[in-house]
Amino acid sequence: MSEFKDLGFKRFVLVFILFICVSQVQAQEYNLVNKESSLKVYGTSSLHDWNVGAENQSGKINFSFSESFIIHKLSLVVVSESLKSGKSGMDKNTYKALKTKQYKSITFTLTKVNNITDKGSGIYEVKGQGDLSVAGTTKNITVTLKVIVTSSKITIEGEKKFKMTDFKIEPPTALLGTITTGDEINVKFLTTFK
């Protein structure tokens, strides 16, 4: 009889240990906090440098910790017409170039994590690839992200340069073509998930 009790106790301990282990590696999902996140696009023109900032973005990160930090999914969505420069004429040209009547959002989805380096103190460098969709064209791009993990939030910081023409976007012009926009842009972001 004591053998059965002993066996039952061992099973209980085993189930308890498995429960603790599973709960430690169970994936968690955080949502992007728009008011704590920023995304800016920087560019040049024949007249002056310019930038637009995103006022409306959303997204999710799905992650877990086992022996290290792991990202399972990461997605970002920027409402195209939430990109604002503070100048209505420039915004109008931006929306025309982005074909916002047809394509309401710009999206990024992480498709592969190539490497995660633990930098210490909850800071990780993530190198990966993802699908960026702009104005109806999707390209797989490489990204390097700085990820800061605390007990209550995850912050992702980075930047990416690319050419508008890579996404079949004609760089905007103004004043009958006398002001031209440079093809290369630089997207800088600091994104908070909770």
UniProtKB/TrEMBL annotation:
<dbReference type="InterPro" id="IPR007372">
    <property type="entry name" value="Lipid/polyisoprenoid-bd_YceI"/>
</dbReference>
<feature type="domain" description="Lipid/polyisoprenoid-binding YceI-like">
    <location>
        <begin position="29"/>
        <end position="194"/>
    </location>
</feature>
<dbReference type="Pfam" id="PF04264">
    <property type="entry name" value="YceI"/>
</dbReference>
<dbReference type="InterPro" id="IPR036761">
    <property type="entry name" value="TTHA0802/YceI-like_sf"/>
</dbReference>
<protein>
    <submittedName>
        <fullName>YceI family protein</fullName>
    </submittedName>
</protein>
